[in-house]
Amino acid sequence: SVKTPGSHVAHYAPRTPLLLTPDDSVAIAVRTAIGKRQKIAVLAPFPAPLEHPLIVRWHVAPTVAEDYARELYATLRALDAAGSDLIIVQRPPWPAVIDRLNRAAAGSGT
């Protein structure tokens, strides 16, 4: 079979474990991680609802698919470099971007 760039399931995987959450679960995931004393980095389409020393980076995601897709890997690299124990990403509504995030989550934490 022919291999194409970006087609490997874990091609764009951060070293930090990545948790992809439904849009209504980001707050729960953040509270759970803080409860476990995990340092977290977050990618969501809204600002951090609270300041906490364990939230080491919060990136407000673009709300336009093309912008989100264009910035995704640079954003994941920045979140990965933030020194967190876990990256929490709110699942966006666009299938092509979800596919990229699923690939990143599949190989994260290795």
- Rg calc: 14 Å
How many helical stretches?
A: 3
Distance between the amino and carboxyl termini: 26 Å
* SSE string: EHEEHEH
Number of strands: 4
What is the share of helical residues?
A: 25-40%
Mean pLDDT: 90
Biggest pleated-sheet summary:
4 strands, parallel
Assembly status: single chain
* Major β-sheet strand ordering: 1-4-2-3
Beta-strand content bin: 15-25%
Q: Name the shape in a single word.
A: globular
Stretches with pLDDT under 50, minimum 5 residues: 1-10
**Structural class label:** alpha/beta
What can you see in these coordinates?
With 110 residues, the protein is of the alpha/beta class. Helix content is 35%, strand content 18%. A four-stranded parallel sheet has the order 1-4-2-3, with helices on both faces. Residues 1-10 have low confidence and may be disordered.
